[in-house]
Amino acid sequence: MIRITNQRQIKTDINRLIKRLNIDSEVFIRRIALEVFKGVIQKNPVDTGFSRYNWNVTPNSSDTNVYGGSRENFAENKAEGAQRAAARNSEQIWALDRARHYFVTNNVYYIKYLEEGSAGRPGYHMAKRTINEVQARLRALKRELFKK
Description:
It is a single chain. This protein is mostly helical. The chain has one domain. It has helices spanning 7-21, 25-43, 50-53, 71-76, 78-94, 111-116, 126-145; strands at 55-59, 102-106, 117-118, 121-122. A two-stranded antiparallel ribbon has the order 1-2. α1 packs across α7. It starts with 6 loop residues before the first helix and ends with a helix.
């Protein structure tokens, strides 16, 4: 799990941006969730496509499912696995309900090793890098809107 240590400041910044832009808060928060979702998928390394296929974004509660059978099923046909992942993720993005909270999750057993690394292998830090990028874009927007 990636912990965001400055949650209070992020929430304050988002609320100020929403007020300044005069936009629907649920729409703005949904767009942020979708940016994180797309970012982790794009940064996820692909061997079989199984871990990429299992990124989920859900409103109000986390999705604890693992989709697509097993990693071995994906290994048999990498191209088909990648196509199925893209289709499933596209459907997921457009089917989201509006909410105040979204959860971006991945429940394959080895996702923590892809994210953080393991003995002799560096991590890819898909979630950490994506969150940092989204936070940087929010800070840049804040600076632009609140210039003195």
